[in-house]
Amino acid sequence: MSQSVETLNQLRRQAVELRLAGTTVKETAERTGLSAPTVTAATKAYREGGWEAVPVGPRGRPRSPGSDDAANAGQHQAEAPEIAPAQQQYELPEFTIDPARRTHLERLEAESLHIMREVVAEADKPVMLYSVGKDSAVMLHLARKAFYPAPPPFPLLHVDTTWKFQAMYAFRDSIVDDYGMELIRHVNPEGLRQGVNPFTHGSALHTDIMKTEGLKQALNEHKFDIAFGGARRDEEKSRAKERVFSFRSAEHRWEPKAQRPELWNLYNARKRRDESIRVFPLSNWTELDIWQYIHRENIPIVPLYYAAQRPIVHRDGAMIMVDDDRMPLNPGEVPEMRSVRFRTLGCYPLTGAVDSTATTLPEIIQEMLLARSSERQGRMIDHDAAASMEKKKQEGYF
Amino acid sequence: MSANIKDTGLQTAGMQDESDRLIAGDINAYLERHEHKSLLRFITCGSVDDGKSTLIGRLLYESKVLFEDQLETVAAESKKFGTQGSNIDFALLVDGLSAEREQGITIDVAYRFFSTDRRKFIVADTPGHEQYTRNMVTGASSADAAVILCDARAGLLTQTRRHSYLVSLLGIRHVVLAVNKMDLMRWDESVFNAIYEEYSEFAHGLGIESITAIPMSALEGDNVTAPSTNMPWYRGTTLLGLLETLKLDDEAANDSPFRMPVQWVNRPNLDFRGYAGTVSAGIVKPGDDIRVQPSGRTSKIARIVTMDGDKDEARAGDAVTLTLADEIDASRGDVISTSEEPAGSADQFETTIVWMHDDPMLAGRPYLLKLGTQTVTATVTSIKHEVNVNTLEETAARQLELNSIGICNLKTDRVIPFEAYTDNKGLGGFILIDRITNATVGAGMLRFALRRADNIHMQAVDVDKTARATMKGQKPCVVWFTGLSGSGKSTIANIVEKKLAALGHHTYLLDGDNVRHGLNKDLGFTDADRVENIRRIGEVASLMADSGLIVLTAFISPFRSERALARSLVAEGEFIETFVETPLSVAEERDPKGLYKKARRGELKNFTGIDSPYEAPESPEILVDTGALSAEQAAERIVSELRKAGMLEALAASE
Question: Where are the domains of chain A?
Answer without folding.
Answer: 5-77, 106-286, 296-380
